[in-house]
C-alpha cells in the first residue's frame, strides 16, 4: 500500500440502492444532488461519487441530460473530484451505464471488478408502503438480478474511459476474487498505478461485514499490489462508520454517504450527506488523522485535473 500523509474521504451522494420512501433526506432531484454534493465537499469530502435519478420519481437514471442538470453546479460550487458511476442501476446495459461518463469525461469513474448477485430484497421486510410503484419491484427483482461485470465489460470500460478519456478508476471490489481480477488487468498493463482500490463489505452477494474480512481484503491487496495502490473502505448500513473507522487505523481511506447508509446513529436518519462526512471526519481527527483536500487527493491519485473534464 502506498504511504499516505492524509486520509481521503469519498462521499457517495445518492446511489441506486436506496429508494425515496426509505428516507426523506435521500437526494433525488438535480437540485438536491447538487446542493448535498457541495455541502459534503465543504464538510471534508475530497471525492464525490455520483449517480443520477429521475427527478419525477427518484428511479436510478443513466440519462446524460439529467447529469448535466447537476454536474456544472457541483463544479462551480466546490473543488471536489467528481467520480461518475459506471455501475448504473438495475436493468441498464453497459453502454447505458457508461454513457454519462463518456459524455462528461470526469476525473474519476467507478469500475466494478466482477459479476455478482446483488441482493436488496431483504429490505422489503423493513417497509410496509412505498411512495412509488417501481420501488417494491426494484427490491423484489434483486432476488434474480446478476450485476454484470464480465472480463469483456471491464476491458470495454478500461478502453473507452481509461484510454479514451484519461479517467482514474475507483476499483470497486466486493469480494476477494475481485482483487484477483484487478491483479489480472494490472498484469496485462491495462490499468495504471496508483490504483484506488475500494473494498466493500456488507452487500448480500459480496463479502460479509465481519471485521476479520477487512484484514483478509487488506492482506490480499498487499500481496497483489504492494506499493501500487491506495486502499479505501466502505461498508453498508450500520457497518459504515465502525468499519471505516477501523480500516482508517490500518491505513485506509474511507467512503461514506447516503448511497451506502441512511443512518447517522442507531434509529437516527442522517439528515444529509454532509452530516455523515462531518461525523467520520470528526472521528478521524480525534484519532489524529489529517483529512486530504481535493487537490491533495488529486496529487495522490494522479488524476487528470478538473480543467480537463467536459462539464
Automatic annotation (TrEMBL):
Task: Could you list this entry's UniProt keywords, alphabetically sorted.
Answer: Metal-binding, Transferase, Zinc
Record-level Gene Ontology MF annotations: 3-keto-5-aminohexanoate cleavage activity; metal ion binding
Lineage, top-rank taxon, reads Bacteria
Which coenzyme or cofactor does it need? Zn(2+)
Pfam families from the UniProt entry: BKACE
Stated name of the protein? 3-keto-5-aminohexanoate cleavage protein
Q: What organism is recorded for this protein?
A: Aestuariivirga litoralis
Amino acid at each position: 500500500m502506498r504511504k499516505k500523509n492524509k486520509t481521503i474521504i469519498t462521499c457517495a451522494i445518492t446511489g441506486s440502492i436506496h429508494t425515496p420512501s426509505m428516507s426523506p433526506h435521500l437526494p433525488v432531484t438535480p437540485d438536491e444532488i447538487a446542493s448535498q454534493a457541495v455541502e459534503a465537499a465543504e464538510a471534508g469530502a475530497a471525492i464525490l461519487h455520483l449517480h443520477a435519478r429521475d427527478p419525477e420519481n427518484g428511479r436510478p437514471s443513466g440519462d446524460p441530460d439529467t447529469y448535466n442538470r447537476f454536474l456544472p453546479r457541483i463544479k462551480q460550487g466546490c473543488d471536489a473530484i467528481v467520480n461518475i458511476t459506471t455501475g448504473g442501476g438495475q436493468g441498464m446495459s453497459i453502454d447505458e451505464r457508461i454513457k454519462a461518463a463518456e459524455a462528461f469525461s470526469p476525473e474519476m469513474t467507478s469500475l466494478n471488478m466482477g459479476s455478482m448477485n446483488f441482493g436488496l430484497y431483504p429490505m422489503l421486510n423493513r417497509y410496509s408502503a412505498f411512495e412509488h410503484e417501481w420501488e417494491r419491484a426494484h427490491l423484489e427483482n434483486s432476488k434474480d438480478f446478476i450485476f454484470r461485470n464480465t472480463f469483456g465489460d471491464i476491458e470495454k470500460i478500461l478502453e473507452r474511459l481509461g484510454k479514451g478519456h484519461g479517467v482514474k478508476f475507483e476499483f470497486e471490489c466486493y469480494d476477494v476474487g475481485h482483487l484477483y481480477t484487478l491483479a489480472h488487468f494490472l498484469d496485462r498493463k491495462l490499468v495504471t498505478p496508483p490504483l484506488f482500490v475500494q473494498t466493500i463489505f456488507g452487500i448480500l452477494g459480496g463479502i460479509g461485514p465481519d471485521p476479520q474480512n477487512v484484514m483478509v481484503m487488506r492482506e490480499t491487496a498487499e500481496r497483489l499490489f504492494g506499493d501500487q495502490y491506495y486502499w479505501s473502505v466502505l461498508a453498508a448500513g450500520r457497518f459504515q462508520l465502525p468499519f471505516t473507522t477501523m480500516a482508517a487505523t490500518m491505513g485506509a481511506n474511507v467512503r461514506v454517504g447516503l448511497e451506502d447508509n441512511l443512518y447517522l446513529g442507531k434509529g437516527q436518519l442522517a439528515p444529509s450527506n454532509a452530516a455523515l462526512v462531518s461525523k467520520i471526519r470528526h472521528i478521524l481527527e480525534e484519532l489524529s488523522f489529517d483529512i486530504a483536500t481535493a487537490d491533495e487527493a488529486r496529487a495522490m491519485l494522479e488524476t487528470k485535473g478538473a480543467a480537463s473534464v467536459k462539464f
